[in-house]
Design brief:
By secondary structure, this protein is α/β, with parallel strands linked by helices. The chain has 14 helices and 19 strands. The protein folds into 3 domains: about 5-130, Rossmann fold; about 145-375, pyruvate-formate lyase- activating enzyme (Alpha-Beta Horseshoe); about 380-440, Nucleic acid-binding proteins (OB fold (Dihydrolipoamide Acetyltransferase, E2P), Beta Barrel), CATH 2.40.50. A hairpin with a 4-residue loop joins strand 15 (about 380-390) and strand 16 (about 395-400). It is globular, with a radius of gyration of 22 Å.
Length: about 450
Amino acid sequence: MAERVGMVCLGCAKNRVDGEMMLYNLREAGYELVADVANSDAAIVNTCGFIEDAKQESIDEILELAQLKKEGKIKAIIVTGCLAERYQTEVMKELYEVDAVVGIGANKDITSVVREVLDGKKKETFPDKTALPLCGGRVRTTPFYYAYLKIAEGCNNNCTYCAIPMIRGKFRSRPMEDILKEAEELSEKGVKELILIAQDTSCYGEDIYGKPYLAQLLRELCKIESVQYLRVLYCYPDRMTDELIDVFAKEDKIIKYIDIPLQHCNGNVLKRMCRHGDRESLTALVNKLRERVPGITVRTTFMTGFPGETEEEFAELSEFVNEMRFERMGCFAYSAEEDTPAAKMKGQLDEEVKKHRQEIIMEQQQAIMAENAQKMIGRTINVLCEGFDRLAECFFGRSAADAPEVDGKVFIIAEDKKPKIGDIVEVEVSDTLDCDLVGIMR
């Protein structure tokens, strides 16, 4: 009987793709993949280590597996991903139940690591970050109708609050040919929505082609006959060129949705973050997007309580949120990450102040989204059916305005014909549920 391997994948979609590539290598090596790690011989925790909450989630997951190991239900625990890369030898010292700690550069060696720990050995390995594979086979863990398409790894932006460059290394683009080939293969297997991801998708190609090449990549992807829809995440505001905006406007296959993490609007705060822009330039960019790409959903992320953020600077952010009325938004309280420049800055704020400001911004956004949802009543929209909600006793799905795992739902009342999972159906919006929509399938 083949030995069983299970994986818990935490954090972002980029980490998920890394996990899918490891699963592929394990399956090819003859291991049996199991969905429930409690039924595995070797349990892999593909961790996130970006901010404090994510690190704690990773640690809690490892401790849960440690209890299963103590009970004799699993044989070995392997820690991979960002927490492993960032803290390396500290992980096994603090969590003695762990059998292997694998840096991201060793993902390609996961089969030999699993073999060693199942043979009773302990393992710590941290090759160069650039050894992390950018492409290869994957065992997809998303539903059949959408898939993430990672176009680059690492980051060169060096925002003062962010540990990603330390963890993931410098920005490395995948060759366009590799991306196009994978996109075609995924689409031919029935994937309807390809979601482009990287730490900064708008930086794509600078290292290979000498200039940002995302616009060209999108044009080429749209030429692939089997590709139906493309969604783009993580574009930085200072790289949203007229050329890129034109591609969004003209290409029908590109979903009219853009994720631009702004982080703040006050010029002084952004400068301390080592980011570009101010309220005036960011307002102009969002207005340009809405003018040039009618109906576009603009998603952004903000951070409250950055070192030195004054009441006046926070008030400006609050005003900006109310003024811009972003269709989708997330807000996080600043987390001081060790070895980042921001963690050493003067003016560190109390946790209560940071979280209170975060709550204010999110309350504002919830009100804006609820108002926007009300305005949708009476409209007919296309919805990708994703499942049946037993509590609500109806089907649910996503509109073009909703990315998986981060945005909202559309609840589908199917009176006559029932939708199938993965179908795109027309829904007439009849009501709202907080910020979500409720509608009748036509």
